[in-house]
Amino acid sequence: MIKIAKTIFSLLLTSALIWAGTTGKISGLVTDANTGEPLPGANVYVEIGGQAFGAASDADGYFVILNVPPGTYTVKAAYIGYTPVEIKNVVVRIDLTTTLNIKMQEQVLQTETVVVEASRPIVVKDISNSQLNLEAKAIENLPITSVNQALVLQAGIESSADGIIVRGSSPRQVLYMVDGLSMNDERSNMPYSFNSITAIKEIQVQTGGFNAEYGDLRAGLVNVVTKEGSTDRYNLSIFSSVRTIWCV
């Protein structure tokens, strides 16, 4: 029994480490738009890469969708006797919770799906540290060819021969992670930032108030999540630059 318990504990711990620092979650309430009463058993889901991530609301109308990769999605809600709802442009961040309060209209006659535009909150309640997020769309619009070049454009970060320096510290005090795995050398603790800029889905930079899941850092955390490859096509990215020479 002791060996079985240890095995189960190891599997659970390994599973938690795999997902740590690479995904976010979506949670909120599903209520009746007219009465404000919670709707238990409502199906809330999001489609990602042909797969559906979803959950059913509990007796209080509360739902949680876990292990959602960072990105912008359309969240759908369905409930018997109510008009289906779609919430577009829902942004999911690494290690953060996106809160949605879904209000559904009682369906009397067959009508079209209600489409709602998600708005970003002014104050994010589940952030207790100093951090910034760079999405793939923002990175693609920058005149850069590497991850370090994107990072040094942010306040408090500068470049050095050994890597990035956060708030005047040493590169050894910065933890560089890719898809939940540390890229720091085990002996020198120097980070290796060799990712292709076209493979980046989102970059999160934390400069204080680190969670307990991260160690071996003092100055900052660079958390990189890469894109998933397509199963039905090939992608090719080409960098080009133009230099203009003026002759007088």
Textual characterization of the structure:
By secondary structure, the protein is mostly beta strands. It has 2 domains: 116 residues, Carboxypeptidase-like, regulatory domain (Immunoglobulin-like); 96 residues, Ferric Hydroxamate Uptake Protein, Chain A, domain 1 (Beta Complex), CATH 2.170.130.10. 11% of the residues lie in helices and 36% in strands. It is built from 3 helices and 15 strands. The strands form 4 sheets. A 5-stranded mixed β-sheet has the order 3-2-5-6-8, with no helix packed on it. Strand 2 and strand 3 form a beta hairpin. About 4% of the residues have low confidence.
Secondary structure blueprint with pairings:
Elements: H1 2-19, E1 24-32, E2 43-48, E3 51-56, E4 62-68, E5 71-78, E6 85-92, E7 97-104, E8 114-117, E9 131-135, H2 136-140, H3 147-151, E10 157-160, E11 163-166, E12 174-178, E13 181-182, E14 200-206, E15 220-226
Parallel strand pairs: 1-7, 6-8, 12-15
Antiparallel strand pairs: 1-4, 2-3, 2-5, 5-6, 9-14, 10-11, 12-13, 14-15
Give a brief rundown of this model.
The chain is mostly beta strands and 248 residues long. The protein has helices at 2-19, 136-140, 147-151; strands at 24-32, 43-48, 51-56, 62-68, 71-78, 85-92, 97-104, 114-117, 131-135, 157-160, 163-166, 174-178, 181-182, 200-206, 220-226. 11% of the residues lie in helices and 36% in strands.
